[in-house]
Automatic annotation (TrEMBL):
Homology family: Belongs to the pseudouridine synthase TruB family. Type 1 subfamily.
UniProt domain Pseudouridine synthase II N-terminal: residue ranges: 33-181
Swiss-Prot/TrEMBL catalytic activity: uridine(55) in tRNA = pseudouridine(55) in tRNA
Protein's name in the database: tRNA pseudouridine synthase B
InterPro entries per UniProt: PsdUridine_synth_cat_dom_sf (IPR020103), PsdUridine_synth_N (IPR002501), tRNA_psdUridine_synth_TruB (IPR014780), TruB_C (IPR032819)
Occurrences of domain tRNA pseudouridylate synthase B C-terminal (ranges): 182-239
GO biological process, one term: mRNA pseudouridine synthesis
Enzyme class: isomerase
SUPFAM superfamilies: Pseudouridine synthase
């Protein structure tokens, strides 16, 4: 018997991975798949190869929650380099235009940045994973071609200037899903009339995951080799702790698992909400997400996503 073989551990939930610059989000997932020897691995929001910071990695049943996590707010530290425009809109691309910063002052930058708060419209960059006729735009861009992209509405919840040291401007951004910080940098530069590119990007928060609670690749490898990887795995329901909850009676479990809507008599306790609700067993096992249907006294809780 090979006693050196590691026991199989069920891995369901999330690891708050601090992605280093220089690797793609997909390469980060390959690292986890090889290290942990699990098939169901994904992430909840792409980070550009040149960017670093919080990349929530979904394991096992956690992959069922990835689409919900992608809808959450993100926070970044972003450095803009004014006067230099590149084809990728960041420092990793080819310089296509350089302009002097004559006549650009801090007050001009402060005034322009104010215009990018709230609801704004962005045209996604050519170097992005968005697909056009089945092909990622970055593949089209690498051939030297450009295609028309539909503008998208995004929301900038906060946009604060940390410092200005021309040609560099450091910003802190909190934004909605789908926001391209590279595009934000380029648009700010365009509004100033000198162009700009993104020279540094660090994601500091993604939904409930924060940078000061994350783990590097080296730390994760060390925990795995020491048999402590389970200490890093956060439970699946951490993605939904902001939602109301309901606890079913044990005898209602089978019906719930079969997709049957439960009346309030089948619940031990519950909170009524017009949003998605977390559903637990009496032993606090996270079972599903559900939605309320009907009106009192005929309320029913319908399961919409099972996690067992």
């Amino acid at each position: 018997m090979n006693t050196s073989q590691k026991p199989v551990i069920k891995m369901n939930g999330f690891i708050n991975f601090l992605k280093p610059p220089g690797i793609s989000s997909h390469q980060g997932i390959i690292f986890f798949r090889k290290l942990l020897k699990v098939k169901k691995v994904g992430h909840a929001g792409t980070l550009d190869p040149g960017a670093a910071g919080v990349l929530p990695v979904c394991l096992g049943k956690g992959t069922k929650a990835s689409s919900y996590l992608m809808d959450t707010r993100k926070k970044y530290r972003a450095e803009i380099y004014l006067g230099v425009t590149t084809d990728t809109l960041d420092s990793w691309g080819k310089i296509v235009k350089e302009l002097p910063l004559d006549g650009i002052y801090s007050r001009d930058i402060i005034n322009v940045v104010e215009n990018f708060k709230g609801k704004i419209t962005q045209v996604p960059p050519m170097y992005s994973a968005i697909k056009k006729k089945g092909k990622p735009l970055y593949q089209v861009a690498r051939r030297g071609d450009t295609v028309e992209r539909e503008p998208r509405e995004v929301f900038i919840y906060s946009l604060n200037i940390i410092y200005i040291d021309l040609p560099r401007v450091l910003l802190e951004v909190e934004c909605s899903k789908g926001t391209y910080i590279r595009t934000l940098a380029a648009d700010i530069g365009e509004s100033l009339g000198v162009g700009a590119s993104l020279s540094f990007l660090l994601r500091t928060k993604s939904g409930p995951f924060e940078i000061n609670e994350g783990f590097t690749r080296e730390e994760i490898e060390e925990c795995y080799q020491a048999g402590r990887i389970q200490n890093l795995i956060l439970p699946v329901d951490i993605a939904f702790l902001h939602l109301s909850q309901a606890v079913i009676k044990e005898e209602a479990r089978k019906a719930l698992m079969n997709g049957v809507s439960l009346d309030t008599a089948s619940l031990q306790k519950y909170e009524i909400s017009d949003k998605i609700v977390r559903i637990y067993s009496p032993a606090r096992e996270f079972l599903a997400l559900g939605r309320w249907q009907g009106h009192p006294p005929h309320l029913k809780l319908r399961p919409v996503k099972l996690f067992v």
